[in-house]
Amino acid sequence: MQAMEILEALVGFPSVVGTPNAGIVAWIRDYLQSHGIDVTILPGPEGDRSNLFATIGPRDVPGYILSGHMDVVPAAESGWTSDPFRLRAEAGRLYGRGATDMKGFLAACLAAAPGLAQTPLRRPIHFAFSYDEEAGCRGVPHMIARLPELCKTPLGAVIGEPSGMRAIRAHKGKAAARLTVNGRSGHSSRPDQGLNAIHAIAGVLAQTVTEADRLARGPFEHVFEPPYSSLQIGTLRGGQAVNIIPDSCEAEFEARAISGVDPVGLLAPVRAAAEALTEHGFKVEWQELSAYPALSLAADAPLATLFADLTGCAPLAAVSYGTEAGLFQRAGIDAIICGPGDIGRAHKPDEFICADELFACQAVIEALGARCSA
Questions:
Q1: Mean pLDDT by 10 residues, the chain (374 residues)
Q2: I want to staple 143 with a disulfide (CB 3.0 to 4.6 A). Which of 51, 115, 341, 358 is the partner?
């Protein structure tokens, strides 16, 4: 099958983050196995979604991982001019949810797979396709934990997020958490008889803003925009009516960290301020939603040199978005970002990838295969 045909099949699966993904996993498994490729399905703890790991070539020597996610963000926003889960081709563009983020990369990998399977590879190429990346890389840690039994420690992992096929060496780490504060309801005319959860959480929000202002003063890592770690309040929900004391309020927080800074640690002062509310009779729940470390690959690392060679361009120093690359690096595997499409097209109506971007990605994967057979 050609990359466009494969992408059409993949987009047809509404594999929205946080939902079961058996359909797309089975399709990829059957396709790869039809070409004699070894596939392992790795069910996640959720019970209704799985990672997929495949190996082309020998398992007992170090090779390269091509990592991508099978999930997509929802497509409920207005503005789509066609069914988001049915690929539409027009003037060289291929429209559909996930076309660029990042089923296009998966399609290029799968299109290259039959040729790779016929190549006498001296070093293997592995496909590591994960679930729930869009929820903060929730699936891939379970797969990384299983790597020692699946393959020799790889020489590198290539994360195929849309980068215009320009390799990227660094991104920030991220952590997100949800805070729920429960107080006591009552009539607004008797605030002395209730516990106002919105009033209580206001102090936590103020602490967050103070921390965000402090982070903006450094330390700095100037390859990033902005060049400092950041902290924000992303959502806030609470209250029922203006004359009811609100007994519950919920907020979500996000931290993004430069290299060498623990993103979970950036949320620690916010969590401390929240937990202090228990001293005033409030019930507090702090739930970590996601966390992954920053990526920082040296400019002279062998993986960076290899992808400069394969793409014909020196890798970019850094990007603002995050990926599972930092998780691979934390596991002792060098990682780099390189994939087809443009991140600016992702997470919006009429998401698209260009057909020639698919073919360019497939060509780089095939060139990697040629290096692995030399």
A1: 97 98 98 98 97 97 98 95 97 97 98 97 98 95 97 98 97 97 96 96 97 97 95 97 97 96 97 97 96 95 98 94 94 98 95 98 98 90
A2: 51
